[in-house]
Write a structure and sequence with these properties.
about 300 residues; alpha/beta; TIM Barrel; 8-stranded parallel β-sheet; binds glyceraldehyde-3-phosphate; Aldolase_TIM; lyase; EC 4.1.2.4; deoxyribose-phosphate aldolase activity; schiff base
């Protein structure tokens, strides 16, 4: 008999049985499939569409201790008008900042349609109490964040305390109110693809609206095979539960090639139902300029050169 959500949500043994009962990931198969899809070429007309779609999916990110209000304002201006010389360039999906910068981003993005995402829950390590994590989430939402990017407690996950991870995600989700919750698995610390699949299921069962690969502070980050495993998880979760969850690879996505490989992977794994910023994001601090340069190259046949664009 399939256990109910209430059953698994109240017992670590039930959660463990469910997560360890998922089919194992064929590591060699996943690596090969991702590598094969990564070599697919796409037509020039499709490339132009893919670049604009990738721009619309970017969560333009700055997560540095040295972030200043001025840097966040400049990033927000870039999010709304990525190329001031070309109004046909679409806006990005969101700007992603630390909680204390949310109000600045909200102010700078007012009326633009670009969302404000905030990391929370003692990002990037996640090492704090549940009370602090919930309070930090409430602070960011109170300041106007539309989206919260939380980290899971990898220590609890890796020691098999799935219920702790589940309860933490559920508590943060409750603190989000109407804000969307992205759950960062930090796949570079999870050791196996089986763990990535289990952590993705745990995040979805606990109420996450998105599963996200990485903080950008740990390597490896958004690899193609890990993103493939997570795409398979959201596909299977939808078919079993009827609830659709988004995917956000983040960390180390730097070039148009990287971005387009991700889009091919989405198309081939879950289909075009996820080829939309509502369901797929690219978390990146520095991919936008390359997307702009390649876009201009396609349109004019020549590169404008990196100096033409403002810094990411
Ligand atoms: O969430 C997004 C990541 O922090 C960005 O990582 P990145 O700086 O490697 O692009």
């Amino acid at each position: 008999m399939t256990p109910s959500l209430a059953d698994v949500a109240s017992s670590n043994v039930a959660l463990r049985n469910l997560l360890h009962g998922l089919p194992g990931v064929d590591r060699v198969g996943a690596d090969q499939r991702a590598a094969m899809l990564g070599t697919r070429s796409i037509k020039t007309t499709s490339k132009a569409l893919a670049i604009d779609l990738a721009i619309r999916m970017v969560d333009l990110t700055t997560l540095e201790g040295a972030d200043t209000p001025g840097k966040v304002r400049a990033l927000c201006a870039k999010a709304v008008r990525p190329d001031p010389g070309d109004p046909s360039v679409p806006k990005v999906a969101a700007v992603c900042v630390y909680p204390d910068m949310v109000s600045r981003a909200v102010e700078a993005l007012a009326g633009s349609g670009v969302r404000v995402a905030s990391v929370a829950t003692a990002f990037p390590s996640g090492r704090s109490s549940l009370e602090v994590k919930v309070a930090e989430t409430a602070f960011a939402v109170g300041a106007g964040a539309d989206e919260i990017d939380m980290v899971i407690d990898r220590g609890a996950f890796l020691s098999g305390d799935y219920l702790k991870v589940f309860e933490e995600i559920a508590a943060v989700k409750a603190a989000c109110g109407t804000a969307h919750l992205k759950v960062i698995l930090e796949t570079g610390e999870l050791a196996t693809y089986d763990n990535v699949r289990r952590a993705a299921w745990l995040a979805m069962l606990a109420g996450g609206d998105f599963v996200k690969t990485s903080t950008g502070k740990v390597q490896p980050a958004a690899t193609l095979p890990v993103t493939l495993v997570m795409l398979e998880a959201v596909r299977d979760f939808l078919s079993i539960t009827g609830r659709k969850v988004g995917v956000k690879p983040a960390g180390g996505i730097k070039t148009t090639k990287d971005a387009i490989k991700m889009l091919v992977l989405v198309n081939e794994t879950v289909g075009d139902g996820w080829l939309d910023p509502d369901w797929f994001r690219l978390g990146a601090s520095s991919v936008l300029n390359d997307l702009l340069m390649q876009r201009q190259k396609l349109a004019t046949g020549r590169y404008a050169g990196p100096d033409y664009f403002t810094l990411d």
